[in-house]
Every structure is written in C-alpha cells, then in structure tokens.
Amino acid sequence: MRILAVADEESKSLYDYYRPGKLDGYDLILACGDLSVEYLEFLVTMADCPLVYVHGNHDEKHKRLPTGCICADDKLVVVGGLRILGFGGSYKYRDGKYMFTEKQMKRRVRRRWLSLWLHGGFDVLLTHAPARHLNDLETIPHRGFECFNTLLDQYHPRLFAHGHVHLSYNHRIPQKCKHGDTTVVNAYESCVIDLEDQ
C-alpha cells in the first residue's frame, strides 16, 4: 500500500505546481492536521483515493469540514483494510478547541478501549502531536503525549503518522524512524510511505 502523509504546510509541489498525474498511484492519504480545507479537498479529488484526517491545533479557524474526506478524530476507522486510530490536537499551551493536557488526551484514548477490543487493535496511529520523547521538543507547545507511547507499546501498530513538529525547527528531527516494530513518520509538508502488505 502506497500512502501519502501530509501535515502543517501545504506542499507547493503537490498544490501550487500540481501537474496531472502527480497524485496518481496512492492508495491512501493521511492528513495529520493544520492544513486548509481547500487543500484537503484538492488532494482527495486529484488523488482519487481515500483521505483520512485529524485536526491540528490551529484547525479551530475552519468554518466547515472538508468534503469527501474521512475524519478519524477520536475514532477508529477502517479504510482499505487498515484500522486507523486518530487523535487530533496538541499539548495545551493556551486555551483552544484542539489543545489538551496529558490527562485529557489520556481520557480520550481510554474512551476508545471498546473499539480497540472489537477490532483487535489497530494498524495506524494518526495524530497531530508526536509521542513524548519520540521526535518531540522540550518546549510545551511542541511536547508529545506519553499516552501515545503506551498505545505504541501495547498494540505495536505498523505505522504512526504525526505532524506538529516542523522539520525546519530542528535539523536533527528525522522524518522517518522506528519505535520497535512501528514505522514513525513526521508528515510535515509531505512524506511517501510504502506499507508492505501483511
């Protein structure tokens, strides 16, 4: 399965300088937040494949939801045979609709236990924020969530896609790495993932 992951900034290559066929060959698009509604609708239309998204911490400004896209925020959705568990938002550094304390995020995760049990776990963790000490930063606005580490260690998903920490913030932040058996992707702007069939 060929996946395009996007987050935080619209890719000029995919949007401003789009040419027909540029978005061909993808089976799924994962959007990790802080992207315009128009951009998500453009991608899902031109790529002709499902687009699953969660909200970023700046998405409260949107007046409507993207048409033709699947929201996975606080849900487990199954798309193309993949069980995708989604949690949008970032660590709380001010009042905002999509900002959460560790305790609040942990509560959101706990509410999904029945879905996780019924589906036998999940394949993809789709979030806006990273996990704590896994490509996050020490500053409160870009701190990751401990409860995401618990999910990774307990369920061993194939993929963890997040955004929020722009790669331009620190040149040492990798776009791809591993956490046990899980491929971890910082989807800042865009990243292509080839997920082998199992």
Sketch the major β-sheet. 6 strands, mixed
CATH topology group: Purple Acid Phosphatase, chain A, domain 2
Strand content: 25-35%
How are strands sequenced across the largest beta sheet?
Answer: 5-6-9-10-12-11
Could you explain the architecture of this structure?
With 198 residues, this protein is of the alpha/beta class. The chain has a single domain (2-194), classed as Purple Acid Phosphatase, chain A, domain 2, CATH 3.60.21. 19% of the residues lie in helices and 25% in strands. The chain contains four helices and 13 strands. It has helices spanning 37-47, 102-110, 113-119, 146-155; strands at 2-6, 28-31, 51-53, 70-71, 75-79, 82-87, 90-91, 99-100, 124-127, 159-162, 176-179, 182-186, 191-194. The strands form three sheets. A six-stranded mixed beta sheet has the order 5-6-9-10-12-11, with helices on one face. Strands 4-3-2-1-13 form a five-stranded mixed beta sheet, with helices on one face. The radius of gyration is 15 Å and the shape is globular. The protein starts with a strand and ends with a strand. 38% of the residues are buried.
Write the layout of secondary structure elements.
Elements: E1 2-6, E2 28-31, H1 37-47, E3 51-53, E4 70-71, E5 75-79, E6 82-87, E7 90-91, E8 99-100, H2 102-110, H3 113-119, E9 124-127, H4 146-155, E10 159-162, E11 176-179, E12 182-186, E13 191-194
Parallel strand pairs: 1-2, 2-3, 3-4, 6-9, 7-8, 9-10, 10-12
Antiparallel strand pairs: 1-13, 5-6, 11-12
Sum this structure up briefly.
By secondary structure, this protein is α/β, with parallel strands linked by helices. The protein has helices at residues 37-47, 102-110, 113-119, 146-155, and strands spanning 2-6, 28-31, 51-53, 70-71, 75-79, 82-87, 90-91, 99-100, 124-127, 159-162, 176-179, 182-186, 191-194. It has a single domain, classed as Purple Acid Phosphatase, chain A, domain 2 (4-Layer Sandwich), CATH 3.60.21.
